[in-house]
Amino acid sequence: MERIICLLILLNLRLFAQDEFIFWAELSSRNLVLFHQSQNISLAMTKSDNFFSDFVCELPYTQKDFIKFPKNSLGLIDEDMPKKIKLDFLNSHKDELSECFIGAKIQIKSFTQTNLLKAQNEIYIKILPLRFSVDFGSNSALIYYLRKK
Q1: What whole-number distance in Å separates Cα of residue 106 and Cα of residue 52?
Q2: Model confidence over 53-92: pLDDT tens digits?
Q3: Residue 101 and residue 136: Cα distance in Å, rounded?
């Protein structure tokens, strides 16, 4: 019975959450020096309903990307490539992707402690989790931010 449920979950992921991903990031600085940076990308478990799709950026392919992408019979990039290849591409372009979502919902916390003539400042910046989709074109990947209606 458990196997059937697992197979149904995997089938659901394969059919419905095709090109949706989730991105979030955290940055922390202490005394204006960056000491922690984390950018995360994961596959979406479900497909979004009732959403607007806003174009945010374009990620050009590198030569390594062209080698990894599967091709169709015409020699073009196959849109139905496995999700692992898509996720690997996005992980290899994390820095560019974080620049795409810099205008998203951001949470900032700042703490300052003073003791006589000493001051310590800590700033925490968090890009809240957001959904996005990817369309793979012939020369670049187009990134779309998905937000609810």
Answers
A1: 20
A2: 889 999 998 888 888 888 877 777 777 788 888 899 899 9
A3: 18
Amino acid sitting at position 27: L
Distance CA 144, CA 136 (A): 11
The single-letter code of the amino acid at 55 is F
Cα 51 to Cα 121, 130, 131, 147, 149, distances in angstroms: 39, 12, 10, 5, 5
- 3-state DSSP assignment of residue 67: helix
Q: Which residues pair with residue 124 across a beta bridge?
A: 28, 109
Q: How far is CA 49 from CA 20, 53, 133, in A?
A: 12, 11, 13
Residue 3 is predicted with a pLDDT of 67
Rounded Cα distance, 43 and 17, in Å: 8
| 39, β-bridge pairs | 25
pTM: 0.75
d(CA 30, CA 92): 27
Instruction: Kindly give the parts of the chain with pLDDT less than 70.
Output: 1-18
